Amino acid sequence: MHTFVSDGAAIAYRVDGAGPPVVLAHALGVHAEANWLRSGWIDRLLRTQRSVVSFDLRGHGRSDRRHEISAYGAGVHEDVVRLLDHLGIERADFMGYSLGAWVGIGVLATHPDRLNACVLGGCGWQGIDRQHNLFLADALDGIRSGDASLQWQAEMTVRLVDACGNDPKALAALLRSDWAVPLDRVRHNERPVRLVSGANDLLVPDPEDMRRRIGSSTAVVIPDADHRTALVHADFAAVVLALLEEHGLRRCTRAR
């Protein structure tokens, strides 16, 4: 992977292939390699003759993993725009999963001209319920919740962060920062958006409610899939490839 500096933070990224660019933003607690390379997504997109830009969100993987809350905030989605600037890309297609989906929403709200067609997968509670983020931050800091019904989420998150070699204190700081963009800022979005989630995904709010709150979006629910399995489901791949075929960039657009 390569690195560039985004407002003082080192961000690790890789570019594979050549052609119209698609940017990939991963889920909380993992990194680009686990989310996109090992899952086969980079190879799948390369077969469509595209350039694939994947990166480690700040706080994750090989990007800077600071413990200060001030190191995150809007920088979480501004890193996408700065990465496009760094690579000389004017506009790109986008796919994000879970936290990465909310990163895409942040870019659509603040820099809609930089994204084209967008897939937002497993777009869960992170951008809607701040108390949920604080609960997960506490779990990463070793603070046990008094609500036994939520303990499974805490344990799952801690295990995932540990398995991917991430820093729990850095991710706790990210979750405590004010990074989420309110959905009313994308109510009038005009970019084609597909919201994709598993029917058994307990981490995703009502997909139809999300669809109504994001302009130009459609919701696709994958039967018999949950937050972990939806991303590698054949139906998810079919939705992504169909969107790129119909609305994706036809050629690489470079900054003037």
Structure report:
By secondary structure, this protein is α/β, with parallel strands linked by helices. The protein has one domain: 3-Layer(aba) Sandwich (Rossmann fold). The protein contains 9 helices and 9 strands. It has helices at residues 32-37, 41-46, 75-87, 99-110, 130-140, 151-163, 168-176, 207-213, 234-247, and strands spanning 2-6, 9-16, 21-25, 51-55, 89-97, 115-121, 193-198, 217-222, 253-254. Strands 1, 2, 3, 4, 5, 6, 7, 8 and 9 form a 9-stranded mixed beta sheet that branches. Helix 5 (130-140) packs antiparallel against helix 7. The longest helix has 14 residues, at 234-247. It is globular, with a radius of gyration of 17 Å. Mean pLDDT is 94; it is low at 252-256.
Question: Which structural traits does this protein have?
Answer:
256 residues; alpha/beta; Rossmann fold; 9-stranded mixed sheet; 9 strands; globular; disordered C terminus
